[in-house]
């Protein structure tokens, strides 16, 4: 019985991670409300989920706002660009849907817009995780996201399916918005981190010697 109350047993460890997932999802949701902060907030969401929840390194709030500040400019610009594209594609799909029977080849046009939207989502999956890990310009960031989404297509399809399922879940149960962001990110990171390791430079040595915390290579 005493083992049950051990804070390091499986039950309390799982409960602790679930609590962190909820807290992180709530932080992300409210930080995203100004819209312009979606990019840096999502970048910080991935960084904190992997480092603080999955790797159990650092503290939730400290790691989130550290990443948020470090990547604010590039994250905000990237987020605004991608939000505009998403709105444009969403409007096109809605317009094509409403006018399918009114215009010639309306169904084909709708299919094209849906296909472009799927491609855009697949590309978007990589943008902010890459930004959280690598130093590069916005142009390089978008190129890297496009390259990885195509180069690792099977993983991209799986991650797209995860996001689609989560989106449907939130649509039917909006309260899940306070659980799913960090929860889905944690699941996606299982695939994303395997991809990132293919592009990470080799370790420069122990952190005590180099002063660099290479926690992501553990």
Structure in words:
This protein is mostly helical. The protein has one domain (10-200). Helices cover 74% and strands 0% of the residues. The protein contains nine helices and no strands. The protein has helices at residues 10-32, 38-54, 60-70, 72-98, 106-133, 138-151, 153-172, 180-196, 207-210. Helix 1 runs antiparallel to helix 2 and helix 2 runs antiparallel to helix 3. The chain is globular, with a radius of gyration of 19 Å. It starts with 9 loop residues before the first helix and ends in an 8-residue tail after the last helix. The model has no long low-confidence stretch (mean pLDDT 89).
Write the layout of secondary structure elements.
Elements: H1 10-32, H2 38-54, H3 60-70, H4 72-98, H5 106-133, H6 138-151, H7 153-172, H8 180-196, H9 207-210
Helix pairs in contact: 1-2, 1-8, 2-3, 2-4, 2-5, 2-8, 4-5, 5-6, 5-7, 7-8
Coarse shape: globular
The major beta sheet can be summarized as: none
What percent of the residues sit in helical stretches (DSSP H or I)?
Answer: over 70%
Instruction: List SSEs in N-to-C order.
Output: HHHHHHHHH
- Our count of helices gives 9
Number of strands: 0
What is the rounded Rg? 19 Å
Beta content: under 5%
Indicate the mean pLDDT: 89
Number of domains: 1
Question: What low-confidence regions span 5 or more consecutive residues with pLDDT below 50?
Answer: none
Structural class: mainly alpha
Oligomerization state of this entry?
single chain
Distance between the termini: 34 Å
């Amino acid at each position: 019985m005493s083992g049950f109350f051990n804070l390091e047993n499986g039950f309390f460890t799982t409960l602790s991670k679930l609590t962190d997932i909820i807290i992180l999802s709530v932080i992300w949701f409210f930080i995203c409300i100004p819209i312009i902060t979606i990019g840096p907030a999502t970048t910080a969401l991935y960084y904190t989920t992997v480092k603080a929840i999955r790797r159990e390194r650092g503290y939730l709030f400290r790691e989130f706002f550290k990443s948020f500040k470090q990547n604010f400019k590039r994250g905000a610009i990237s987020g605004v660009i991608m939000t505009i594209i998403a709105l444009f594609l969403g409007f096109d799909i809605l317009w094509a849907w409403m006018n399918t029977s009114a215009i010639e080849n309306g169904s084909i046009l709708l299919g094209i817009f849906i296909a472009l939207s799927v491609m855009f989502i697949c590309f978007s999956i990589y943008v902010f995780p890459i930004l959280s890990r690598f130093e590069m310009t916005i142009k390089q960031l978008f190129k890297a996201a496009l390259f990885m989404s195509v180069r690792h297509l099977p993983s991209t399809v799986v991650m797209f399916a995860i996001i689609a399922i989560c989106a449907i879940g939130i649509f039917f149960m909006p309260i899940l918005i306070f659980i799913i962001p960090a929860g889905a990110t944690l699941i996606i990171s299982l695939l994303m981190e395997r991809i990132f390791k293919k592009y990470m430079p080799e370790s420069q040595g122990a952190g005590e010697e180099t002063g660099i915390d290479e926690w992501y290579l553990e």
